[in-house]
Design brief:
The longest helix has 41 residues. Helix content is 75%, strand content 0%. Helix 1 runs antiparallel to helix 6 and helix 6 runs antiparallel to helix 7. The chain is elongated. It is built from 8 helices and no strands. The chain has 220 residues and is an all-alpha fold.
């Protein structure tokens, strides 16, 4: 039994703590866990990938902040039922410019929130990759982390969230937004879970096809 082949538990725990602490400390605002990952990533390609996602998160926060500031400075038209804002009031009472900026404001926030939560679901798997000196993987599937694919998953979560609060759920600040927030968080989780399942299935399919090809070549 080789000790060298055992799971590097201490290194894994060290990386996990180093990533979890900045992630949990309002990481959706600063994304410091991505900066930590950038410093310890296995190769230049993955550092470039992480830098791109870090910049995208900061752009999301910038859109959230600037959009919120504009909406507060301009002020909303009064809502007929006395609430600060609701889905009905947004679409029926507000000016087109206010609707657009308000929506972009929350799309920026949704991007950063979705990225943060999906990152959090992968911290344990990423810590194992770092401890074993391997490239980061996508949603624990074993597939190498790909910036375009991961960006598409985050975009899918943002799209679902945006449709939910703009079209499907009749929310109102008068009634509180806890239910809406819970639904949006659950949607991010479900999109991530669905993507992880699809990634695992894709990896198995690719592995089976490679095995068949190798068998055919070897039998010639």
């Amino acid at each position: 039994m080789g000790y060298e082949n055992s799971f590097p538990i201490r290194a894994w725990l060290g990386y996990l703590v180093a990533l979890l602490l900045p992630w949990a400390a309002l990481g959706f605002i600063h994304s410091l866990h991505l900066i930590v990952l950038w410093f310890v990533a296995a190769n230049t390609g993955q550092r470039r990938l992480l830098a791109g996602h870090l910049v995208s998160c900061w752009i999301g926060i910038l859109i959230l902040g600037l959009g919120g500031g504009w909406c507060r400075s301009e002020g909303a038209a009064g809502c007929p039922d006395g609430e600060d804002m609701s889905r009905t009031c947004l679409w029926e009472e507000q000016q087109p410019a206010y609707k657009a900026i308000y929506t972009l404001h929350y799309i920026g926030g949704s991007w950063t929130l979705a990225h943060w939560l999906l990152d959090g679901l992968q911290l344990a798997a990423w810590s194992r990759c770092l401890a074993e000196g391997r490239p980061l993987t996508l949603l624990g599937s074993g597939l190498k982390l790909n910036g375009v694919v991961y960006g598409a998953i985050v975009s899918a979560a943002v799209l679902v969230m945006t449709f939910t609060w703009t079209l499907f759920i009749n929310w109102s600040t008068e009634e509180g937004l806890n239910t809406l927030a819970g639904i949006l968080l659950m949607e991010i989780f479900l999109v991530g879970l669905s993507a992880a399942v699809l990634a695992v299935l894709w990896r198995r399919q690719s592995s089976n096809e490679s095995t068949v090809v190798e068998h055919c070549v070897g039998s010639r």
